[in-house]
Design goal:
FAD/NAD(P)-binding domain; seven-stranded mixed β-sheet; five-stranded parallel β-sheet; 16 helices; globular; binds flavin-adenine dinucleotide
Length: 495
C-alpha cells in the first residue's frame, strides 16, 4: 500500500517506520528543512541545540521504547544516555534543594529520609503511581483485552488530588509535582494517569539522547527509506482534496501533488482543518476539533557557555520560586513569571562540562498574541525588546543556582510561543498539543479514524504526548491499517 504521512514529528516518523517495516511504501512530508518536530535539533555558531525532547525513558533493556526500536532494527543507531538522578529541584524561597534519585527503591528511600513521617505514605504513593501506569497496557506492550480499556477511578482523578490522597505533608505534595512541567499540569484538571506515566518513565530509567534527539528522528527516517519510502523536507502541505469522503491528493505550497492509498496526519488537527476541503468533515466534528483547548506554550532560553565554566549535569535542574507555586507553572501570570524553570545541559567531549544550557519555562500564548501575525526573522522591535526582558528574567532565576552564569555566557538567544508555533505548526505554540482534562477526557482524546475514509490521525493530539505516549499512538495508528495486535505481537516476539 502507498501511504503519505503529513509531518515528520515523533508520531509521523514512528508510524511511518512501523508501516515501512510491514512492507508499505511510505512518503513523509515535512514542512521544515529539518525532520523531527519536537525531536529536531538545530546548529547555531557551531553548537547543536535540541528543540524539545530533553529527557526520555523506556530505553533500557526490556523498556517499551527499547523493544520497539530493537524491532525496527535501530536500537544501535542512537545512544540513550542514562542518568542516576531523576532531577535536582531547588526551591528558592525555602532555600532547599532535593536531588531525587532514579530507581523506584532509591526514590522511596531518598524521600523517606527527607520526610520520615511520610515513609509509609511514600511507598503507598509510589506503588499507586506504578499501578496506574500499568493501566496503559500498550506502554507495557500488552494489547487491550476486549477492545476498550477499563480504568480505575484514580486513573482519571486530577493529579494534585491523587498526590494528596496518599501524602499528608504539603511540602512533599508540592515536591512530588516536580514533573509537572513535563505535562504542563493544571491543578484540578490534569489527570493522574499523565502524572503517573511521566513519573514512572523518569523514576524507572531516565535518560537523554547523547548527541541530540534528532538521532532518533534520523534512525526512524532510515527505516522508512530502507522500505523504499522517503522523508521529504521543505514540503509544506497546504491543501487536501477530498471527493466523496476520500482524499484524492494532498498538495504542498509549491503546487506538488502527492497521491496514496492511505494518508496519516501527524500535525495539529486545527492545522489539518485549515487545509482540508470544507465538506470533508461534518460541522460537528470541525467544531469539536476547534474547541478542544491546548496545553500552554513555552519560552526557552539557549545559553552557550564558555568552555570549562559550568559543570555538566546529566539530569534536569529545576528551579522554582517557592514550593507553593508547584501548580502555577502553567498559569498566565505576567507579573510573577517565571515561577519555575528547568535547565537541560549538553556535555563537552570529556563529559565534565556543559557546552550549553537550554532553559525551559512554560508560557501562555496570551503573552505574545499581539504579534501573532509576524513570522520568524520578521518580528517587530517591540517584540525583540519584550523577548530580551523575558530572557533576563529567566537568567536571573538561573543565576540563583549558577551565580556566574552571565560571565560564563558566550552566546544567548531565546524562543517564544511564536517560535514554537512556527517551528512545530501547533496552534498557539502549544508544546504538548491538546490539553487533557479530567472534567472532559472524552473530548480531548481523538479517535484515530476520521470521517474521511482514507485519513488517519497520529501524534500527541490523539492521546498522550512525549516519548511515553506518541510512539504508542503510532502503533495504534499503524495497527488500524495492519490489524489490531499485529505489530505489538511482532515487537513482543522480536529478539
Ligand atoms: C519545548 C519542548 C520540550 C519538550 N520536552 C519533552 C521531554 O523532555 N520529554 C518528552 O518525552 N517530550 C517532550 N516534549 C514533547 C514531545 O517533544 C512531543 O510530544 C512530541 O515530539 C510530539 O510529536 P508529534 O509527532 O505529535 O508532533 P510534532 O513533533 O509537533 O511533529 C509535527 C510535525 O509536523 C510538521 N508539520 C506541521 N504542519 C505541517 C504541514 N502543513 N506540512 C508538513 N509538515 C507539517 C511540523 O513541522 C513537525 O515536524 C517537549 C516538547 C517541546 C516543544
Amino acid at each position: 500500500m502507498e501511504i503519505v504521512v503529513i509531518g515528520a514529528g515523533l508520531g509521523g516518523l514512528f508510524c511511518g517506520a512501523l508501516l515501512a517495516k510491514e512492507g508499505h511504501k511510505v512518503t513523509v512530508l515535512e514542512k521544515n528543512a529539518l525532520i523531527g518536530g519536537g525531536l529536531q535539533t538545530f546548529v547555531r555558531k557551531g553548537e547543536s541545540y535540541e528543540t524539545g525532547m530533553h529527557v526520555a525513558g523506556g530505553f533500557h533493556e526490556q523498556g517499551s521504547l527499547y523493544r520497539i526500536c530493537r524491532y525496527l532494527g535501530i536500537s544501535d543507531r542512537f545512544e540513550p544516555a542514562p542518568s542516576d538522578l531523576m532531577s535536582s529541584v531547588t526551591y528558592l524561597a525555602e532555600g532547599r534543594t532535593y536531588d531525587i534519585p532514579a530507581g523506584k527503591e532509591a526514590f522511596i528511600e531518598y524521600l523517606s529520609c527527607k520526610f520520615p513521617d511520610e515513609r509509609d505514605n511514600i511507598r503507598r504513593y509510589t506503588d499507586a503511581v506504578f499501578r496506574l501506569s500499568q493501566e496503559e497496557k500498550l506502554f507495557y506492550m500488552k494489547s487491550e483485552q476486549g477492545g476498550y480499556p477499563v480504568h480505575s477511578d484514580e486513573f482519571l482523578m486530577p493529579a494534585d488530588q491523587f498526590i494528596a490522597k496518599y501524602i499528608d505533608n504539603p511540602e512533599l505534595r508540592s515536591l512530588l509535582a516536580f514533573v509537572n512541567p513535563l505535562y504542563a499540569g493544571v491543578a484540578g484538571h490534569s489527570p493522574a494517569y499523565l502524572h503517573a506515566m511521566i513519573s514512572v518513565m523518569f523514576i524507572d530509567h531516565p535518560c537523554r539522547f547523547a548527541g541530540g534527539s534528532n538521532r532518533l528522528a534520523e534512525a526512524l527516517a532510515w527505516v522508512i527509506e530502507q522500505g523504499g519510502g522517503a522523508v521529504l523536507t521543505r514540503r509544506n502541505v497546504t491543501r487536501i482534496q477530498v471527493e466523496e469522503r476520500m482524499i484524492k491528493c494532498v498538495t504542498d505550497s509549491e503546487g506538488r501533488e502527492y497521491r496514496a492509498d492511505m494518508y496519516i496526519s501527524d500535525i495539529h488537527p486545527c492545522a489539518l482543518l485549515d487545509m482540508i476541503e470544507g465538506k470533508a468533515f461534518t460541522p460537528g466534528y470541525r467544531e469539536r476539533l476547534r474547541t478542544i483547548p491546548d496545553t500552554v506554550s513555552a519560552f526557552k532560553v539557549f545559553i552557550k557557555v564558555k568552555p570549562g565554566t559550568i559543570p555538566f549535569s546529566d539530569h534536569p535542574v529545576s528551579i522554582l520560586d517557592n514550593m507553593s507555586n508547584a501548580w502555577k507553572l502553567s498559569a498566565y501570570d505576567p507579573q510573577g513569571w517565571p515561577h519555575g524553570v528547568s535547565c537541560f545541559m549538553a556535555p563537552s567531549e570529556d563529559g565534565k562540562w556543559a557546552t550549553h544550557i537550554s532553559v525551559l519555562s512554560l508560557m501562555s500564548w496570551d503573552e505574545v498574541s499581539r504579534w501573532a501575525d509576524t513570522r520568524t526573522g520578521h518580528r517587530t522591535p517591540e517584540y525583540e525588546e519584550w523577548k530580551r526582558a523575558r530572557t533576563e528574567k529567566v537568567i536571573d532565576m538561573v543565576s540563583n543556582v549558577y551565580p556566574g552564569i552571565r560571565e560564563c555566557t558566550e552566546d544567548c538567544f531565546a524562543a517564544s510561543p511564536l517560535t514554537f508555533r512556527d517551528w512545530l505548526g501547533s496552534r498557539n505554540g502549544s508544546i504538548y498539543g491538546y490539553f487533557k482534562d479530567t472534567e472532559n477526557l472524552v473530548m480531548s482524546q481523538l479517535p484515530i479514524r476520521t470521517k474521511v475514509g482514507n485519513l488517519l490521525l497520529t501524534g500527541q493530539n490523539v492521546n498522550m504526548h512525549g516519548i511515553g505516549g506518541v510512539p504508542m499512538t503510532a502503533i495504534e495508528t499503524a495497527e488500524t491499517i495492519t490489524g489490531m495486535g499485529v505489530i505489538v505481537n511482532k515487537i513482543k516476539n522480536a529478539r
